[in-house]
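Handout, section B. The chain below has 108 residues.
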Amino acid sequence: MTAEVSYGRLDDDYPAYTMGRAADMLNTTQGFLRAIGEARLITPLRSPGGHRRYSRYQLRIAARARELVDAGTPIEAACRIVILEDQLEEARRINAEHRRTAEATGSS
């Protein structure tokens, strides 16, 4: 892993955005962010003062949920869909990694 990739992942997970800023960036309400938190789609970190803080990764997840809700999907179902999409993407990443390893070692 290169330093650039490593730092990019750290930035992706850094809780840099307040609830208000996150809602503005997503063009949604703070209530929506609370709702997807209650549905356990994302769990924002808390500042020392107890305020919710969101990472870029969490904002991407929230944006996808918002797309589904805007298309008429109930919020609980939207959250489940996003979780399954995320799990599928991770499984594909792991499979590709295994494939590369197998090709590099010459096994099939």
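Note. The chain has five helices and three strands. Compare this with the example in section A.
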